[in-house]
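The records we work with from here on pair a chain with its fold. Taken together, the tokens spell out the fold as the letters spell out the chain. The record below shows the convention in full.
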Amino acid sequence: MIPPYPTEIISHAVWLYFRFSLSFRDVEELLAQRGIIVTYETVCQWCLKFGQTYANELRHRRLRCGDKWYMDEVFLTIRGQRHYLWRAVDQEGNVLDILVQSRRNKKAAKRFFRKLLKGLQYVPRVIITDKLKSYAAAKREILPGVQHRQHKGLNNRAENSHQPTRLREKKMRRFKSAKQVQRFLSAFGLISGHFQPRRHRLRAQEYRATLQDRFQTWNEVTRVKLVA
């Protein structure tokens, strides 16, 4: 059973874990430095219980994402077996969705497309992928009227979005199961991305104001979900 702690402490612990490349023990130590004594097991329970709930609420509150979708897949080695992490981002770098699968064939691509469309509930203007043939085959059936560009150089935005995942994979000493990866990254992408506006496009004053707005949204999200 998770002991009763104030909302502010729980939300702060969850924010630390998903926003920065920290372990549960790192979060435990950071809280201890501020006089808050919790075990890393408790931090783990908080992240498992509230992380996805917070992420889902952030997803509901964010504005509609862009109409240009960049898609890419990267391999993950889990217990000696190869899996593939499918990811889609828009032209602003917002993570649209992720899906961990054991294949990267046409069936896997179709499943990813369906998951994207179900979650976003709108059709893109154009999708950009690498030259994997599975994308084209799935696109012809699922998104027949959407423009499709296949070029290695055009897909850098999606490829670069995998970098934070690689950092967390290293910090966590590899992922333990496909279910763990799916659960963690589904929350991580939304929470981490929420606090990372495209700073290079903003003046310092605009960036600070944007970040304050996002912290305010986070406070609203965490307070509502925990009180209920």
